[in-house]
Structure formats: structure tokens, C-alpha cells
Write a structure and sequence with these properties.
- The chain has 1049 residues and is of the alpha+beta class.
- It has four domains: 8-54 and 946-1048, no CATH class; 59-166, no CATH class; 176-230 and 279-454 and 686-937, no CATH class; 486-661, Jelly Rolls, CATH 2.60.120.
- The protein contains 33 helices and 20 strands.
- The chain has a six-stranded antiparallel beta sheet, with helices on one face. Strands 5-14-7-8-9-10 form a six-stranded antiparallel beta sheet, with no helix packed on it. Strands 1-16 form a two-stranded antiparallel sheet.
- Residues 457-470 have a biased composition (Polar residues).
- Residues 211-426 form the DUF1549 domain.
- This is Planctomycete cytochrome C.
- Residues 450-470 are annotated as: Disordered.
Length: 1049
């Protein structure tokens, strides 16, 4: 925040909250206590008092924010419709207790017992008391589940507001939503095809530096104004640094830039922009912007029972985002990987892993863990639908879960067309087991909880001794035969009539099982480990890892069933299931088995169906019906091969035969329990959050009123409104291409293709608007997460389409940012004429730049940078990953996970409902839902943070102690490089904190301030060095809290 007066003394007395000047009676003061270093001069304390006079608006007089409206539509309206409106709405046959709950007037007026709601006071609200069965009991039959009640509590705490759309005098619902009638073009502008708009004519043709400038200048000239002057180079370099990398330039970098700027302005700016875009800090800055949209967090959030389930592997998604932004992954690919990365082909294991981690976008949302009822799966689906649609298209579809959308052209059928896609997707949370709980584990941990991202074990030894827990797990499943290979190579005898020799494919005999199965066609399963040592594709290589056949030594007969591995041009190291009957069926998998890796295989025969699990994951491409082939065969062959092919060199380890088909969970348990062969290198098993398709994708049935009762099924698909909103010149031409969903997949791949089609009207508009917002403080559309009927209209619709069309050509985020920051519009000064300020206080004409407060992360990182304590190395993993045994966080536990870290803020532990306090104080999002635009609040807690935060006190002290000091004894000799005058030290601190030297007046005011603090401390602090350190730390804290430090122009 800039000091708007020249005199430093006045600036110290300037209130950071209301920008008023405190009277002369307010003199620097420091409490003479041991914690004196944690308190500023009294001039700063006054700021907190000023904050307390900020009046809150009446809850029902405010305009409902997009976030609050989404909360109402997603959480409150469905519950009211399902549980309350039968008796408490204008349409009810008989209004119970004269209470109406379908409007704000009705709920505030209340019924026979008085107002049902007291805004922001749930404890005093009768509706909450009734839902909790305290006195009146509503609904009368059964209480609502705890999650719904907590939603109502949150709603009342937010103010208990109703959207205008359901008020009696508000606009009616869109009657044409579910019909094929035309829709209003102005109301539904964002659903329409982008227009190729020519750049407008302007008078001052020398002013623009980019075509986008012409659109801005045309509006300014049309309003009979002139734009502000260009920002000075010192202001511009700081703006670029903060906007692009979230850090501050040094005083030396600023001075060099100013000097070069005077010689060649365009090249100097371009060179700096390119340097910042290429910096690794760019991805950390802009990756954080996307994490707001992705509702990123490392825990599930408080479930109302004092538990906060950790997501110990969510950080991998964070790192994926940072890396993708730094590599400038095209935005269409970026979106596709996050929606359907697990379904995309990959050229390498690294790419495959990256794509799998990307789908954490769908998995990291908050889950209603306290309400694991039959609606839980649909609640997860609802979060995924709303996240994808809001993040990518700027349209929330969640309220269509219960009824046709009240605002936008989205019928309920469209919601369930999307729901079928995500209901056919399995969400994997990457949760670890909890053994040290002091409260019951949350039901979330009962879900499938692990995902092997890498699918690889990498031993360096051929040892085949497995850990005891694997053998124990096998024995718990009661195998018919369990071959524990305690010796290798060599002969081994096991229970029954099975014999096994060595572990090399070429030397293994048949394992002959006689009389164990009553019927040769009964269900059975086999489980084993194998390692492929072959990496030679010069000739066909085949090995039968397991088979069941009538006869056999090395040459298998014509009738057999089994599973094998091969290296040839068609199979390239992939598993396959073969059926040697007359049909000669062979089903080849898609996963390449890398050389030198151990892999766990489970083959399940259930009657005529064969399924295969590889490393704990069902391979859907090896899940087929196969005809019976065995007759009365009783032979099981392990590690055999056909003489027709060269041997596949490798090792086979511990195996088991079961006389039944194992369940999916049992197959996964075997893999997780096994670890890897003893004597091998540690297993490279990486867990992550993500998704995969279910084995049997299916369409979703409409849930009547969003409840458990189901109606007709809706084919999987996308929003139908685009089919009606056609191009004006060619009505037969759809706005967005339509893709049919593959019946054998969830449909996520097609959904991603539809969303990222170049002609999709919303995808590129929404993203360029998000970019614009982060560079100007406000988007061209002021509601970045709502491009619908109740969202804001664009201030410059032609400019928005111009930028969206440019963006969709290459989908490069860096190129779009570069074009904008090199424009004349971006480089304008914040100061302009009073005439323009009066006519356009919100700056919708863009005739000037907007002054903005540093966001929470940039403020913290800038403080660390000024103190010299910042660690710019990328954070490794997460502290949450190291404490996965915690799920219910004891008091104070959650906040200790990040305090010792001096890494950039993006690497701090981000726990839902327990964020880092230095971020939470400054409008850090709660990660419960999408936060495309953060709140900009002015609260007493922010001033108190600047006064008392241990973090800020520590940085102030570090800044003060990092610079040379003047000798305490004025007669002492000065040591070059070690001792400086107090005036010189003030200059050094100014340059570190504010990147400039102080004026003479500022320097003198600072010295008087420091002297006054030392005098105040004299009666209670005997040590002269301690008094000096406290005084200088107080001065540093004043600089790190002032307007100039906390705001950018």
C-alpha cells in the first residue's frame, strides 16, 4: 500500500484499514512486556480500532454473491423442496403453522411462533432448533441427517439469503428451459458462438500497442474520455513481478530496469516479461490461481464430528498443476488430462503417471463423510459435475439435480446425462489407513482407498522371499494351494500334489493338481508374482505364466486357458489371456510390462467369464466371456511356454490357487499386502488421488427431487442448450460440436473433447476472463464463475470474443498473458482525472489500472523475501503426507504442520477448515467450492494479524537482524562492512522492504520512531542490545505492514 503523504511520521499514523490519518495524540508506543517484540507502535494499534467501526450490511439487503447463491441452490433449495415445501410453500394445500419457507419475506416473518430465521445467528433461529429437534420437531416423521442440518446452519451463518429467482416478485423461472423454443440472445449470450469481431475504428491510432488496445480505446473515446498516462517504470516492474511470479523485484533490479527503460522501453519490457514467464516461479504463481478453481485442499474438511480426514497424496495434483503451467501445456490438453487423463494414450510411463495424477482434479473435492448414506455416491458426482462445468464453462448446473435450472437453459435431464458420465467413474482418494485415531474413523475410509499410480515394482535382486503379511493375507483367503517359494532356485514341495521347480521359465515343470476340484468347470482364481527380464523385440517371445490344460509338459495342447506375457510387434510386452479351443481366442491387454519389474497378477475364472487384475487394478480390456474348454482337466501349469517361440526370460514368485472366484476387494488386498520380494530394492509404489472408469459404465436414472427415488434413465451426454443456440447466419450449424459417448467407457474422454472443441462458446471465454481478472483485479465479466443469466454481463463483449478467439488458436496460457501485459491497457497508471473517477468509479471503461491489495500468498512470500528468509526451492511432498495416521486433528495440531516452512505459500499444508493462519486472515478461499474470485474484505482480524502475528514478528526481527548495525558506543571504532550509521541502516531496510531509498523526511521520521521505542522500553528492558533489537524490529514491522508494501499500483 503506497504512502499517500511524503512525511514518514504521518504514514506511521495512517490507518491501514480506512486510510485516515490518526491525530497527533497518537505517538509511538510499545508495551513494556516480555512480548514487546510482538507489538507495534501505538500508531499501528489504532488501526485495529478503526477496523471495528466498519459496519456490516444487513444480510437481506445485500446482493447474493455467486458463491452464496450456488450454496443455496446446491444445498438448501433441494432440502426445502424435498422435506418442507409440501406443508410450507405457497403451493401447499394447507400451510402448516402459517409458515412459508419459499421466500425471504416468509421465513423472516415466520409463522405462529415468530420469525423462523435470525440472520447469522443459527442458535437463535427457530428453523435450526426445529431441525435439531429442540422443542418443535421438523420434519415431523424423522430428523434430517446431520450433514443437511449442518448445511442449514452454514446457510443461516451466511445470512440466510434467498436468490431473487424464487421470490414472489422476482423473475420467473425460465419456462423454455426444457423446450425446443428459442432463447433470449442477450440473456444467454455466453451460450452463443463467439463472433469474429473486427477491431474498431479509433481516433488516436498511435496509442494501441496490441489489437486489444483498440477495443478498450474505442470505449474510452466513445465516452469522451482519454486514458490515464503510462505507469512509471518502477511501478511497472513491481506490477509485472507480482502479477507474473507473485514476488517483488529487488531495489537493484528496479534501478536497472528503470535505466534500461529510458533507453529502449519496448525491448526492456519484453525482455523482462519473457524472463518472468520462463521462471519456475511463474508456475507457482499461476498454478495457485488454478488451485483456487480446482478447490484444492489436503484434507476432506471438518465433518461436524471433529474429524478432518487427510488427503496425504493431494500434493501430487498441486505439483502437476505447477509443472503444467510452467511447461505451458495447451489449455485444451490441460483440461483434457484433468477430466480424462487415465483414458488417454501415453508415450512413456512418466506421461502416463502425469495424466493419472491430473485426474486428482475430480477427486480432491470435499466429501460428506459424516453422511455415508445411499446418496453419497451422487453427492460425489454432484461435486464433480459442478466443478467441471463451473471451472471450464462458468456455468453451475448443480441445482438441476432436483429440478430444471431456475436461471439457465439446463433441464434436469441434462444434469443426469452428465451424471451418468461421472457415476460411471470410480473416484480413488489415495487415503492411507489410520491406526492412531482418538475418535472413530470417518466412513470415508471405508471406501476404496489406494491407487498405484506407477504400477511398478523395481527390485534389483531375483530373490523371491515375500514378507509375512502377504502369506498371511493369502492364508486368510483359504487357498487350495499356496506355494511359498522359500528357496530359489531349487525343488520345492507344497501341500497337495503340486510340485514346483526353480523360478526360471525355461526350467519349470508343470504343477499338477489332481482331484482338488470336483468339477473342472468350477470357478477358481490364481494369484502370483512375476518379473520380466526380457527387453528384446527382435523375435516373437511368449511365455505362459499360468495355464490350465488337459495335458502338458512344454508343448501345450489345443485346449487350454491361461494368461501369458509376450514380446512381439503386436503385443509389445503386454499381458494376454488365451483360449486354445477351436475359436483360438486371445485377448490382449494394453499395459506394457516393463523389463526388470515385478508385477502382481490375479486371474479370476467365474464360470465362463475371465477377469484379470494387474498390480491391484482390474484391466477392463481383459474382462470377457470365454467358452469352456477343459473337459475333466486337473492340471495347472505355471511358467510354461510353447516350443514354437523363444523363451521369455524372467522369474515367477509365490503363487496360490483358489477354488472360487476372488472378489475385486480381495484381489486388491493381495496386491497391497505383498509389498515386493525380499532382498529387492524398495518398492516404487506411488499413491495418488484420481479416477478410473468403472468396469461396467451405465447411464444414470433421474433422481426425483434429487432424492433416492429414481425415474427414467438418461443417455450419457452433454448440455443440450447448444443445439438450440445455433449460429445466426446458419441455423443448422450447432454452436458446439456434439460427441456420442462410447458405451464401453464412462464418457469423460468425449466430454473433454466437447469442452475443448475450438468452437465451444464458453471454454475459451471463461479462461481468458480468468487471466484478465488476475492481471487487472476484475474480469471483463465481473463474475468469473457465473456466465449465466444471473452473472454479470461483459463490460467489453467484443474484446472478450477477440481474446477468446486468439486464445483458442493455440490454447497457450503464456502467450495470452504475454499479449495482455505488453498491451498499453495493462501498462496504464492507476492515477487518472477526477472527472473519470466520478463517471466510472468501478473502472469498467479500463481508462486506468486498478490499485490492488496483495493476495494472501504474495503478502506472506513478500514478507519472507524482504526478511531474507524465503526458500525458493520447490517444496517436496507435504507435511500432511508424513502424518497420515491423523484424521481427527487435536487442538493446535493442524496449524503446526506449516509454521516451520519458509517455502513459498503454495507449498504450505492446505487443510480444509484449518488453513495456515497467515493466509486465512487475508481472504484465502476455504476450498469447499470453486473460488474463481476471492473476497476482498477489510476486517479487524487483518489489522490484529499485522500487530500480533508471530509470523510477521519473526520476519520483522529477521529483517532487522540481517543488516549491519551502528555500534552502541558512539566512541567505538567503526568496522568497515560490519558497522553502519543508523541513517544508513534505515536506507538499507527501506530498500529491502520497499525497493527504494527513503526521502530525507522519511529517514528522519524513522530515526525518531526508533529512538522513541527505545526510550519506552528503558524502564523494563535493561539490556541495551535487546532494546535496540526490539526498536528496530518495530520499525521493520511498520514497513512490512504499511500501505506501500501491501498494495500494488
Amino acid at each position: 500500500m503506497r504512502w499517500d503523504v511524503d512525511r514518514f511520521e504521518k504514514s506511521l499514523h495512517r490507518c491501514n484499514g480506512c486510510a485516515s490519518i490518526v491525530g497527533p495524540a497518537s505517538r509511538p508506543y510499545l508495551s513494556p512486556a516480555k512480548n514487546a517484540v510482538s507489538r507495534l507502535a501505538r500508531s499501528l494499534i489504532v488501526c485495529a480500532a478503526c477496523f471495528l467501526f466498519v459496519n456490516a450490511n444487513s444480510a437481506h439487503g445485500e446482493t447474493l454473491s455467486a458463491k452464496d447463491r450456488a450454496f443455496f441452490e446446491n444445498k438448501i433449495r433441494p432440502a426445502l423442496v424435498q422435506h418442507c415445501y409440501e406443508c410450507h410453500s405457497a403451493g401447499a394445500e394447507s400451510i402448516g403453522g402459517n409458515l412459508l419457507l419459499d421466500s425471504s419475506d416468509g421465513i423472516l416473518q415466520g409463522g405462529q411462533t415468530g420469525p423462523a430465521l435470525v440472520a447469522k445467528k443459527p442458535g437463535e433461529s427457530l428453523i435450526i432448533q426445529a431441525l435439531r429437534y429442540h422443542g418443535v420437531e421438523m420434519p415431523p416423521d424423522d430428523p434430517l441427517n446431520e450433514t443437511i442440518v449442518n448445511d442449514f446452519v452454514s446457510w443461516v451463518q451466511r445470512g440466510g439469503q434467498f436468490p431473487k429467482s424464487i421470490e414472489p416478485n422476482g423473475p420467473a423461472g425460465i419456462a423454455s428451459v426444457a423446450k425446443e423454443s428459442p432463447l433470449d440472445r442477450e440473456a444467454f449470450w455466453s451460450f452463443l458462438r463467439r463472433r469474429d469481431v473486427p477491431t474498431p475504428m479509433i481516433d488516436d491510432t498511435n496509442w494501441p500497442r496490441d489489437p486489444l488496445d483498440q477495443f478498450v480505446l474505442a470505449r474510452i473515446e466513445g465516452a469522451k474520455f482519454t486514458p490515464a498516462r503510462d505507469a512509471d517504470p518502477a511501478t511497472l516492474i513491481r506490477r509485472l513481478y507480482v502479477d507474473l511470479v507473485g514476488l517483488q523485484p529487488t531495489a537493484e533490479e528496479t534501478e536497472d530496469f528503470v535505466a534500461d527503460f529510458q533507453i529502449d522501453q519496448p525491448k526492456t519490457v519484453e525482455r523482462l516479461v519473457d524472463q518472468l514467464l520462463a521462471s519456475s516461479q511463474f508456475g507457482e504463481r499461476w498454478g495457485r490461481h488454478w488451485l483456487d478453481v480446482a478447490r484444492y485442499a489436503e484434507s476432506n474438511g471438518d465433518d461436524g464430528l471433529g474429524r478432518n480426514a487427510s488427503f496425504p497424496h493431494a500434493w501430487r495434483y498441486r505439483d502437476y498443476v505447477i509443472d503444467a503451467i510452467n511447461r505451458d501445456v495447451p489449455y485444451d490438453r490441460f483440461i483434457t488430462e484433468q477430466i480424462a487423463g487415465d483414458l488417454l494414450p501415453a508415450e512413456s510411463a512418466e506421461q502416463r503417471n502425469r495424466q493419472l495424477v491430473a485426474t486428482g482434479f475430480l477427486a480432491i473435492g470435499a466429501k460428506p463423510a459424516a453422511a455415508m448414506n445411499k446418496l453419497f455416491p451422487m453427492d460425489v458426482v454432484d461435486d464433480q459435475i459442478n466443478t467441471v462445468c463451473t471451472a471450464v464453462m462458468g456455468v453451475s448446473v448443480a441445482c438441476a439435480r432436483c429440478h430444471d435450472h431456475k436461471h439457465d437453459p439446463i433441464p434436469t435431464a441434462d444434469y443426469y446425462a452428465l451424471a451418468g458420465i461421472f457415476a460411471s467413474t470410480e473416484t480413488l482418494y489415495g487415503l492411507a489407513g489410520n491406526e492412531k485415531l482418538t475418535a472413530p474413523p470417518t466412513a470415508l475410509h471405508e471406501l476404496k482407498s489406494t491407487w498405484d499410480e506407477s504400477q511398478r515394482h523395481q527390485p534389483t535382486s531375483a530373490s523371491t522371499d515375500f514378507p509375512p503379511n502377504y502369506s498371511d493375507t493369502i492364508d486368510q483367503l483359504r487357498p487350495l494351494v499356496h506355494a511359498k517359494l522359500d528357496k530359489a532356485p531349487g525343488d520345492l514341495k507344497v501341500a497337495g500334489d503340486v510340485s514346483y521347480t526353480a523360478a526360471n521359465y525355461a526350467k519349470v515343470k508343470n504343477a499338477d493338481l489332481r482331484g482338488a476340484l470336483n468339477n473342472a468347470e468350477d470357478s477358481y482364481s490364481v494369484a502370483f508374482w512375476f518379473k520380466n527380464n526380457t527387453d528384446n523385440l527382435a523375435r516373437p517371445i511368449t511365455a505362459y505364466l499360468f495355464s490350465r490344460a488337459k495335458l502338458g509338459d512344454k508343448q501345450l495342447p489345443g485346449d487350454h486357458l491361461g494368461i501369458g506375457g509376450a514380446h512381439d510387434k503386436s503385443r509389445s510386452g503386454k499381458l494376454f489371456v488365451f483360449n486354445g479351443n477351436q475359436a483360438k481366442t486371445s485377448i490382449v491387454g494394453t499395459t506394457v510390462i516393463a523389463s526388470g519389474t515385478w508385477n502382481h497378477v490375479v486371474m479370476i475364472r467365474s464360470k465362463n467369464r475371465v477377469r484379470v487384475f494387474l498390480n491391484g487394478q482390474l484391466k477392463p480390456e481383459i474382462d470377457h466371456e470365454i467358452a469352456a474348454t477343459f473337459g475333466d482337466s486337473t492340471e495347472f501349469c505355471f511358467a510354461n511356454r510353447s516350443d514354437k517361440f523363444a523363451p521369455l526370460d524372467g522369474n515367477l514368485a509365490e503363487f496360490a490357487i483358489f477354488e472360487r472366484g476372488l472378489t475385486d476387494d480381495e484381489s486388491q488386498r493381495l496386491h497391497l499386502a505383498s509389498g515386493q520380494p525380499r532382498g529387492a530394492a524398495p518398492a516404487t509404489v506411488v499413491l495418488a488421488m484420481g479416477t478410473r472408469d468403472k468396469a461396467k459404465p451405465a447411464d444414470c436414472k433421474i433422481h426425483i427431487n434429487g432424492g433416492a427415488k429414481k425415474g427414467a434413465a438418461v443417455p450419457r451426454g452433454f448440455l443440450t442448450a447448444y443445439r438450440r443456440l445455433s449460429d445466426e447466419k446458419d441455423p443448422s450449424k450447432f454452436v458446439a460440436a456434439n460427441y456420442s459417448v462410447n458405451a464401453d467407457e464412462s464418457g469423460r474422454r468425449e466430454l473433454a473433447a466437447w469442452l475443448t472443441h475450438r468452437d465451444h462458446p464458453q471454454t475459451s471465454r471463461v479462461m481468458v476472463n480468468r487471466i484478465w481478472q488476475h492481471l487487472f483485479g476484475q474480469g471483463i465479466v465481473a463474475t468469473p464463475d457465473d456466465f449465466g443469466l444471473y452473472g454479470a454481463r461483459p463490460s467489453h463483449p467484443e474484446l472478450l470474443d477477440h481474446l477468446a478467439n486468439r486464445f483458442a488458436e493455440h490454447w497457450s496460457i503464456k502467450q495470452m498473458i504475454r499479449a495482455i501485459v505488453l498491451s498499453r491497457t495493462y501498462q496504464l497508471d492507476c492515477q487518472t482525472s477526477q472527472r473519470i473517477l466520478d463517471a466510472d468509479p468501478a473502472n469498467r471503461l479500463l481508462a486506468r489500472h486498478n490499485r490492488r491489495r496483495l493476495d494472501a500468498e504474495s503478502l506472506r512470500d513478500s514478507m519472507l523475501q524482504a526478511s531474507g528468509q524465503i526458500d525458493l526451492n520447490p517444496g517436496q511432498g507435504s507435511a500432511v503426507e508424513k502424518v497420515v495416521s491423523l484424521i481427527n486433528w487435536p487442538a493446535g495440531e493442524a496449524t503446526t504442520l506449516h509454521r516451520d516452512s519458509n517455502h513459498r505459500s503454495i507449498y504450505l499444508c492446505m487443510l480444509r477448515h484449518a488453513p495456515p493462519p497467515e493466509l486465512a486472515a487475508f481472504d484465502f478461499p476455504d476450498a469447499v467450492s470453486i473460488a474463481g474470485q476471492r473476497n476482498a474484505t477489510t476486517l479487524p482480524t487483518q489489522s490484529l494479524f499485522l500487530l500480533n502475528s508471530p509470523f510477521l514478528v519473526a520476519q520483522s526481527s529477521a529483517l532487522a537482524n540481517s543488516l549491519p548495525k551502528a555500534p552502541l558506543n558512539a566512541n567505538a571504532d567503526s568496522v568497515p562492512g560490519e558497522n553502519v550509521s543508523d541513517a544508513e541502516r534505515v536506507t538499507m531496510i527501506f530498500r529491502r522492504a520497499l525497493r527504494r531509498s527513503p526521502t530525507t523526511d522519511e529517514q528522519q521520521a524513522a530515526l525518531r520512531h526508533i529512538q522513541a521505542i527505545e526510550e519506552k522500553l528503558s524502564p523494563t528492558v535493561d539490556d541495551a542490545h535487546q532494546r535496540q533489537n526490539l526498536a528496530w524490529a518495530s520499525f521493520c514491522q511498520a514497513l512490512l505492514s504499511c500501505n506501500e508494501f501491501r498494495y500494488i499500483d
